[in-house]
Amino acid sequence: MDTISSMSDQPQLTPREHKALRIIRDSIMHGRNGISIRKLQRIMGYQSPRTAAVIIERLCAKGFTVRRSDGSLKILAEPIRDRLMEETVMVPIMGTAPCGSPFFVEENVDAMIPISTQIAKPPHRHFLLRTVGDSMELAGIREGGLVLVRQQEYASDGDSVVALVDGEVTIKEFRRLSNGILLRPRSRDPKKHQPMMLTHDLRIQGIVVATISSEDAELFYPET
Questions:
Q1: The CATH number of the domain where 145 resides is what?
Q2: In terms of domains, do 130 and 42 share one?
Q3: Would you name the residues annotated as active-site residues?
Q4: What is the pTM of this model?
Q5: Residues 135, 52: one domain?
Q6: Which of 26, 114, 7, 41 lies closest to 73, judged by CA?
Q7: Got the DSSP string for 183-207?
Q8: What pLDDT tens digit does each residue of the chain (224 aa) get?
Q9: Domain end call among 33, 60, 84
């Protein structure tokens, strides 16, 4: 996982840089493909897009963000004062992994977000994953939200698991049967979402320990 700067060596942010970093972080947290310079200009109230571009350049120079090859921004560090508001642990938001590739690689991390240790309980490792689709809505996992996942390679009956099936990531209810593993959707539309019976090509990545709606996601950002 990403290394977070220590208190002694982390560059200081100006109030405007701090605000811009929060806006960029909010955009990533809500699953959007970053934020454009012109949109950042409008939100920050600048007259010129060049001013917003300079702010982004400063965040990159100070090691808080970096440009990906496609031009989108990735958050590398969080301001110390954010992380000291309460006891937190840095949890990665995982992007969509390419089919068949390893899930836990740096290229799949969109940002590192401070989450309360009351939810992301140590010593376990956790990650956040954006939810797509409505196959688990009866389990409280809804389209466009986030799930907090405890990283582990095993599950018990009834757990909502994040699993790799033939290289594709899916969230389903785990059931162990005598002749294999059943991954069961929890949907209001059973005709649309069918259970999967598996005897191989299944890799459990973790179990869902909390759900975060898109509306509540901002609560996981300590205010300054």
A1: 2.10.109.10
A2: no
A3: 135, 172
A4: 0.60
A5: no
A6: 26
A7: EE---S-TTTS--EEESSSEEEEEE
A8: 233 333 345 677 787 888 888 888 877 776 555 678 888 888 888 888 898 899 999 998 988 888 877 777 888 776 655 554 557 788 888 865 433 445 664 557 777 777 888 888 888 999 988 888 888 989 888 877 788 999 999 999 999 999 988 878 889 999 999 999 999 999 888 888 899 999 887 889 999 998 876 555 444 443 33
A9: 84
